[in-house]
Amino acid sequence: MKKPIISVIVPVYNVEKYLAKCLDTILAQTFSNIEIICVNDGSTDNSRKILAQYAQKDSRVKIVDKKNGGLSSARNAGMKVAQGEFYSFIDSDDWIDETMLEKMYKSMVSLNTDITICAVHQYDETNQKIDDTNPYYTLEYFDESFNNKAFSYVETKPFLLDVCVMAWNKLYRKSFIDECQAEFPDGLIFEDGPFFFSIFFKTKRVSIVRDFLYYYRINRKGSIVQKAGKKFLNVIDVVELMYSKIKDIPDYEDVKYTFFRKKVEDFISRFENLNPKYRVAYARKLKKESSLCNEELFPPSMVKGSFGYNYFLFKNLKTGNVLFYDFQKFKLKVMYKTMEILYHEEGVYFLKFKNFITRIKKRPKFYDFYYYDDKIYVRLLTKIKFEVPFKFSELEKFNEND
Fold this sequence. Notes:
Layout: E1 6-12, H1 19-27, E2 34-41, H2 47-57, E3 61-66, H3 71-81, E4 86-89, E5 95-96, H4 100-111, E6 115-124, E7 129-131, H5 135-138, E8 170-173, H6 174-180, H7 192-200, E9 206-218, H8 224-227, H9 234-246, H10 252-273, H11 279-289, H12 307-317, H13 322-344, E10 348-353, E11 356-361, E12 367-372, E13 375-380, E14 385-388, H14 393-399
Helix pairs in contact: 7-9, 9-10, 10-12, 12-13
């Protein structure tokens, strides 16, 4: 058998329901000079049997068996035995267009790049529909000037933190990966970011293929992300690894604020999706281990615009006091929603009466409204005035630069 040009690395763990579709689409590729390295990461369902059936039918399918160690460990194991000149990582619950490898290979060869990136369909398992609205996956952040050219991270600086870091919508030149000594962080989930930035900052030659060639399955029952268990605490370690890559680039000061804002939002999002029994551990770990909590590195003076809302939550989360965070979150939600009603909903007044908060339609013949000295006033035509001492000054301060 001739040496393969592309090594397709497929980590496999308990995906018997999805595995056949994934493998079928890889075997159907119009670019056929490939090897398919299936790393069985200690599966306990019928995944191993399915792999054996495919390996018997097609000699390009190779099986690597190992003890369960997680996605990073499985990908690293696949890279160690890969024979091809290029790497492709395909997750075993996803699938690909039959032209994916051919189109990406042609782009890499013609432009002599180290990495090429394609657009991604998000397939929602719950409603079985494809969503192409997320610019993170559709490559919409790359304007037309990126078409048919090789570029470096410097040209993506305005949207650096919006470049998709996922391992599976890319083709990589093996010699470049070896030169970078790049590996996925063993034992961690959310592993794609550190791997991507460890190579993205070192190459001057990246290209994109705008075609939607990868199908990413989301909301899959039983996935690590869906479980939102203790491993979600890994996001703190992963952000630290990403920060260790970004802080050393020449353009660090230009992207520092964007990194800070994005990762604060990530921390909040992961925390609020986390299984409640791990929330205290998450908050304590964040306070103890995250560089983003270091106000010498990331001073509050960096906070501006609407990001203030998330920073206010983050500031309370990093105290390690989850109950206080929850109280502040509730308070802020009420304040923010009220401001939204007051300032953005045409034809609506806000009214507080005793312990009840309600919205009423504007009736100019009967009601007047004004806002003064951080207080709300609602006045009837009878000149009866109701003073509502509801303060918005703190939230307005965060939004003053919007």
